[in-house]
Write a structure and sequence with these properties.
Layout lengths: L7 H4 L3 E4 L7 H11 L8 H9 L2 E7 L2 E10 L4 E9 L8 H10 L9 E4 L5 H5 L24
Parallel strand pairs: 4-5
Antiparallel strand pairs: 1-2, 2-3, 3-4
GO molecular function: acyltransferase activity, transferring groups other than amino-acyl groups
Protein name: GNAT family N-acetyltransferase
Organism: Mucilaginibacter ginsenosidivorax
Length: 152
Amino acid sequence: MTTFIDDSRFTDNGFIISTDKHLLPIDVIYNYLNDDSYWAQGISRTTVEKAIENSMCFGVYKKGTFAGFARVVTDKATFAYLCDVFILPEFRRLNLSKWLMQTIVNDPDLQGLRRWSLATADAHGLYEQFGFSKISKPERWMEIFAPYIKPQ
């Protein structure tokens, strides 16, 4: 288990952040993404499993109970895409999302990257605290947006 940013405000209260994928409750993550998130409703469990397998994942736990999640798609050299960030409702308003973000941006494997990106509909204020801003040259960015493609 890897824990970062030993912040006593959280660790003294039984919280940890771990990158150990074996601790992740896939059912809880899948159910949240599929049923409660605005960005991944309708996603298949197979897709969630494959995404977790091929990403850096951060789980938030309180005394072994899952509290939150974030995923980073990265080459660990030049680029990182932050996605699927959430804290379960019963653990919100404890500043866990800020601690999670602090942990992610300070992770030793994610230092020196040329670009980070993310998409959000409602958490701009959180991410701005960690250096995120609107894309400086959106005319250079392109995408293929196909959220309902079924996995093969």
